[in-house]
Specification:
Length: 218
């Protein structure tokens, strides 16, 4: 097998779907993990029609055992993982006086904690040159108080990416988050396709000038 293998966690419509298409256009095999079987199957069928090898697994990534099993299934199927992309986050419209501690922890478990689970499960399949990419957000720096948990998630996941990068670097594996400094829209610089292109470019950084966090301002 010569094609690269990309595994996208939190796959579906939007940025993750656009990113999957970019890699498929490059001839990469694509593994998809998501919680909703309908968009997951639809995206898988679309990529298969493009002529690439596709596998998909339905899993709730806040269930550590299920998430690890999904990643392992795809790793064993393809034999390796060259790019692991992490996309999930939870949007809960509650301000800090409405948000409970339990809800905050549940959201962080999805938007940041699950990254630990999937990277640890993917580690046996990551080799020298592999990359971990994460969809970040300006909410990490400028949180919207009416969705307070989102900013906490994005700040936490960006911090975690920096620790992952430092830990994996000696083995030639790098991690990067792309901080999207804008709101996703159907037109303009923040379309899912444009953000996906920024994520793809981040994964292709030169090793000698690698940055573990890259802002995307359109």
């Amino acid at each position: 097998m010569t094609e690269k293998v990309v595994v996208i966690v939190g796959a579906g419509p939007g940025v993750s779907g656009s990113l999957a298409r970019i890699y498929a256009q490059e001839g990469c095999a694509v593994g998809l993990i998501g919680i909703d079987p309908v968009p997951l199957t639809d995206l898988g069928d679309e990529l298969t029609a493009m002529g690439v090898d596709v596998g998909h697994v339905v899993a709730d990534v806040t269930d550590a055992a299920a998430a690890a099993s999904a990643v392992s299934q795809l790793g064993e199927r393809f034999g390796r993982v060259d790019v692991l992309h992490f996309n999930p986050s939870a949007f809960r419209e509650k301000d800090p006086l409405q948000l409970s501690a339990e809800e905050l922890l549940a959201d962080v478990a999805l938007g940041a904690g699950a990254l630990l689970t999937v990277v640890q499960a993917a580690r046996p399949f990551l080799r020298d040159g592999a990359r971990v990419t994460v969809t970040g957000s300006m909410a990490a720096d400028k949180p919207w108080n009416k969705a307070a948990s989102l900013g906490v998630q994005k700040a936490a996941v960006r911090n975690l990416v920096q620790s992952l990068d430092a830990t994996l670097r000696p083995d030639g594996i790098r991690a990067v988050s792309v901080t999207v400094r804008g709101t996703l829209a159907a037109d303009g610089p923040f379309t899912p396709d444009r953000v996906a292109q920024a994520l793809r470019a981040a994964a292709a950084q030169d090793e000698d000038s690698w940055r573990s966090e890259i802002p995307y301002a359109g």
